[in-house]
Design a protein that fits this description.
The chain is an alpha/beta fold. The protein contains 17 helices and 14 strands. The N and C termini lie far apart (148 Å).
């Protein structure tokens, strides 16, 4: 028994000795190391861009996997494509560079080590993806780009991931950059006393590639300021390069605010349905309504669902068509959307109009103006209101004549709402003419009758006075009335 134990311990010692060159104290800079070594089970890093937080995540995942036998580590970001783009290549590079012997599975985005430990990378773009994480026993979980997750992240953390840490007394770590507004799940975590917070920026990162070329941190930022044509005090610069939580509404695509919330739906007379069909994304239906006498538009219904078949989509549209009897149905007919639109037209016997996507930025301006002037309302708890707080312009890809929206996070409902708003005719609404009750009508009639009687009396009195003046000045005999009136009749 002692011999077998010695063999096992010897084998473990030999394996660990192979990892001696993977020494985090030599690889990481102080801010990274402090974050990785934090003993708290709940840890946050809110950093600027290019701060080295992703590299810190890579080193932490690798170190945890090789130092613990037979455990699972998990990295989650918005989409699988993002996980592959952000961290996969860096994970493979570090594994090879430090000879950690992890075996990659490219189809599963996983890395398996000789000690049986595995690192998994995954995406989680909506609530429908939560179940794929249930049942895992986890030693370490990273959630990246936390500021861009939608409201379902609370369920992901509380109901799915936190219980999965119980087996190994694992840790959960959140990394991201400040969002464009100081609210949301990530911002609330920063004030939670149970979480350990770390903050560092691009200025603390000594391993920027540009530094090897003799370019300083200040020169890197100055080049960006000139490209963007903004000052160092611009909200997006403070947020992205200094990691500060400042209001940056210019970065948001949709300018929804608290003043656009509504609770009780008013009486509405007209409706438009907007459709956004997803290939990789979800399908979305929006229903906008307004009253023919008012210019305010209300988002009365939202529907967002993944994995629907064509017949299921058509059935959902038909259900709302029968309920609202809309003036128009408008949809994104690009790609597979054209087939779905034709099927809807065939089933309902009404045409489905194609959304004008070429003027999307212009239409966003229209919708933003409606929200600014309180002509557009939605429910604060709805997907549209929540998505408006995280959908941003991509200034890195935008040009002087073309604005680009960031690929992630993506909103299906925002596009559906935009399509339907452009077709809503609330701007043609006219105030209704006031309807008087019978009492008011009788009072007005009596007043008019009295006014007419007074005017007629005054008119007769003036005529009598004119006649008297005529006899007084004409020299005619007032008794000769017949002659007088005959002459008057002839106009003499």
């Amino acid at each position: 028994m002692r011999d077998s134990t010695a063999v096992i311990l010897g084998a473990k010692k030999k394996i660990q000795s192979q990892y001696d060159n993977f020494d985090l104290s030599k690889i990481c800079f102080p801010e990274q190391l402090s974050f990785i070594k934090d003993p708290n089970p709940w840890v946050i890093a809110d950093c600027s861009r290019r701060s080295g937080k992703t590299e810190g995540c890579v080193y932490d995942l690798l170190d945890t996997a090789i130092r613990n036998e037979g455990i699972n580590c998990l990295y989650i970001t918005l989409t699988r494509a993002n996980a592959e783009r952000i961290i996969w290549a860096k994970l493979l590079h570090a594994n090879e560079h430090y000879k950690l012997q992890g075996i990659p599975n490219y189809s599963k985005l996983s890395l398996t080590f000789p000690n049986g430990s595995v690192i998994y990378l995954s995406g989680c773009n909506d609530k429908s993806e939560l179940d794929k994480f249930r049942g895992l026993a986890l030693k370490l979980v990273y959630i990246d780009e936390v500021q861009s997750f939608k409201s379902f992240i609370k369920e992901l953390v509380d109901e799915v991931l936190a219980p999965a840490l119980a087996d190994y007394a694992g840790k959960m770590k959140f990394i991201g950059t400040p969002g464009p507004i100081a609210s949301g799940f990530f911002h609330k975590l920063l004030s939670n006393q149970e979480f350990s917070r770390h903050h560092w920026t691009f200025w603390d990162n000594p391993y920027l590639p540009a530094l090897k070329e003799g370019i300083t941190h200040a020169q890197v930022l100055d080049r960006e300021l000139k490209r963007r044509g903004v000052s160092i005090d611009h909200p997006s610069i403070r947020r992205e390069w200094f990691g500060e939580w400042v209001t940056d509404t210019e970065s948001l695509v949709f300018n929804y605010g608290d003043h656009n919330d509504f609770v009780n739906e008013p009486q509405l007379t007209d409706y438009v349905i907007g459709l956004d069909f997803g290939t990789d994304d979800a399908d979305a239906i929006s229903v906008l309504g307004w009253h023919k006498n008012f210019k305010e538009v209300y988002l009365v219904e939202e529907y967002v669902q993944n994995g629907l078949s064509v017949s299921e989509i058509v059935a959902e549209v038909e259900k709302r068509y029968k309920k609202y009897n809309p003036l128009k149905i408008v949809a994104d007919t690009g790609a597979n959307g054209k087939k779905i639109a034709l099927e809807i037209s065939k089933r309902l016997g009404v045409p489905v109009s194609a959304a004008d996507k070429q003027r999307k930025v212009e239409h966003i301006t229209w919708l933003n103006d409606a929200m600014r002037t309180r002509k557009f309302f939605a429910r604060a708890s709805g997907r549209f209101a929540q998505d408006c707080a995280i959908i941003e312009w991509d200034y890195d890809k935008s040009t002087s004549d073309r604005l680009i929206i960031k690929d992630d996070p993506h909103s299906d409902i925002c596009d559906a709402v935009l399509y339907s708003y452009v077709e809503a005719l609330a701007w043609l609404s006219e105030p209704a003419k006031p309807i008087k009750n019978l009492k008011e009508q009788w009072a007005e009639f009596s007043k008019n009758m009295a006014d007419d009687a007074i005017e007629n009396s005054i008119k007769r009195q003036k005529e009598q006075e004119n006649d008297d003046n005529f006899f007084a000045t004409s020299g005619l005999d007032p008794e000769d009335t017949i002659k007088y009136f005959v002459n008057k009749k002839r106009g003499a």
